[in-house]
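User: Hi! I'm working on a homework problem where we have to compare a predicted structure to a textbook description. Could you give me the structure for the chain below?
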Amino acid sequence: MTSHGAVREWDDNEGIGVIDSPDTPGGCWAHFSNIVADETRPHVLTAGEQVTFSYEAGSQDGFDYRAVLVWPPGVKPGTPQRATPHRPWAAYRSTLTIRWSDGTVTTRPGER
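Assistant: Happy to help. Predicted structure tokens:
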């Protein structure tokens, strides 16, 4: 279902927030990955911003609704979500180390 609402709150660090709408009493939980954005707009919202969004019923962090797609100002409602190219985070590094029962060790560097 699609609705219009106002962003109640948005946490840039967590990438989550709440959208208020008459169709979603108590608020609709939103995640940055559901924001339809283009190259000129980051995947963030601002408190007080008017948005169009599609939602589904479902419990998420204490809310009875969660956003499926969010169209912020300047993005035409109904515009599909584009796949974002994978960009590794500079702060994230991982390594997989397996210690086998025969004493050998296999190490594989992760993404960087």
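For your comparison, note the following. The mean pLDDT is 87. The domain at 2-76 is CATH 2.40.50.140 (OB fold (Dihydrolipoamide Acetyltransferase, E2P)). Good luck with the assignment!
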